[in-house]
Amino acid sequence: MIRLLIAEDQALVREGLCALLGCYDDLAVVAQMADGRAAVQALADGLEIDVLLLDVRMPQGGALYTLGELRMRNLERPALLLTTFDDSAALQAGIALGARGCLLKDVPVEELVEAIRLIAAGGSIAYRPVALLPLVLTEREQSVLRELREGKQNKEIAASLGLSPGTVRNYISTLFEKLGVRDRAQAIRRLQELGL
């Protein structure tokens, strides 16, 4: 039986992971935490686990904090990082701190389970930056992206495309997520990296 600790600040995601992983006979979620600090404390208190699933970004102790604290206290455990965004620097830092791999949260559950089994057996998974994955954009997203690349602000984009500023904001948010970036400057850099 592979014993898991899940540290994820979003309750719905955390509880969903627990429910999905609970369907597998060889996996057992023995603890779930809303942040890395609680995970560190649980392990310091003697909780026995085989694999730690860590959200990269959490308000109270994300993956880097958690891995660093565990290393400092000699409490390291095999860890798998889970993320919504591809923050290459953070993920590479996590790998340097001992994480055995990283997966995007939108992978099929079978891929997550196989990664857990591999890590529990002493293996690791290759880190695949989002920048190397195919980027699929709708026609409307491509239109917004073209306007964004020209340096236009939301109101200008809205007027140009006949959309409301709120709708433009939603498109930009979706684009940032697909590109794995947090702001316009990063988006432009990522587009250049992708040759778009």
Architecture overview:
The chain is of the alpha/beta class and 196 residues long. It has 2 domains: 2-131, 3-Layer(aba) Sandwich (Rossmann fold), CATH 3.40.50.2300; 134-194, Arc Repressor Mutant, subunit A (Orthogonal Bundle), CATH 1.10.10.10. The protein contains 9 helices and 5 strands, in the order βαβαβαβαβααααα. It has helices at residues 11-21, 36-44, 63-72, 88-96, 109-120, 139-149, 154-161, 165-179, 184-194, and strands at residues 2-7, 27-33, 51-55, 79-83, 102-104. A 5-stranded parallel β-sheet has the order 2-1-3-4-5, with helices on both faces. β3 (51-55), α3 (63-72) and β4 form a beta-alpha-beta unit. α6 (139-149) packs across α7.
Q: SSE order, as H and E?
A: EHEHEHEHEHHHHH
Briefly, what CATH class of the largest domain? Alpha Beta
Q: Termini distance?
A: 46 Å
Bin the strand percentage.
Answer: 5-15%
- Structural category: alpha/beta
Q: Radius of gyration in whole Å, from Cα?
A: 19 Å
Extract low-pLDDT stretches. 130-134
CATH architecture of the largest domain: 3-Layer(aba) Sandwich
Query: Taking all residues together, what is the mean pLDDT?
Result: 86
- Helicity level: 40-55%
- Can you list the strand order of the major beta sheet? 2-1-3-4-5
According to CATH, the fold-level topology of the largest domain is Rossmann fold
Shape: elongated
Largest sheet: 5 strands, parallel
The CATH superfamily of the largest domain is identified as Response regulator
Our count of helices gives 9
Q: What number of structural domains do the residues give?
A: 2
Total E-strand runs: 5
